[in-house]
Amino acid sequence: MDHALLDLDTLPTPLRIAAGAALVIATAAIAAASLTPSLAPPGEFGIDKLLHALGFAGLAVLATAAFRGRGTHLFAYALLLAVGAGIEVAQSWVPGRQGSLLDLLADGAGLLLGAAAAGRMIRAARRPR
Questions:
Q1: C-alpha dihedral, 97 to 81 to 121 to 71, nearest 10°
Q2: Which distant-in-sequence residues (6+ apart) come within 8 Å of 57 by Cβ?
Q3: 101-126 and 47-66 helices cross at what angle (nearest 10)?
């Protein structure tokens, strides 16, 4: 396996562009699904919180791959959390949906997990072999 591909901070420009496009598409898909009345996930057993966390963890990994530098990463994560907050507010006007602070907390937890996973990938790729 080419360990250079795990180093998200040094990805070649075409892969960064692809990650950025995937980030935009995934963010739009999450927003669309979150604002569609008929796609509300079941609330039992916290499955909706798990979906929030997994979705935003994926977004964090994509953001890390799309942008260079820790400061840029932190800005991207903050922007993604703001998107999550915007979705929760917008859900107040969607029939059958409601905004939830717990959902936003799950988004934040997912961002932290995704950022940690991306950081681990970067460190593993830079470790001498």
A1: 170
A2: 110, 111, 113, 114, 117
A3: 40
The answer to whether 73 touches 23, Cβ cutoff 8 Å, is no
Q: Where are the domains of the chain?
A: 3-126
Q: Are 60 and 79 in contact (CB under 8 A)?
A: no
Exposed/middle/buried for 68, CB within 10 Å: 0-12, 13-18, 19+? middle
pLDDT digits (tens, 9 = 90+) for 101-125: 999 999 999 999 999 998 888 777 7
Tell me if the pTM is above 0.90.
no
pLDDT in tens, 98-107: 889 999 999 9
Given a contact cutoff of 8 angstroms between Cβ atoms, the answer to whether 101 and 85 are in contact is no
Q: What is the largest CA-CA distance in the chain?
A: 55
Please give the structure tokens belonging to residue 62: 């994509």
The three-class DSSP label of residue 73 is: helix
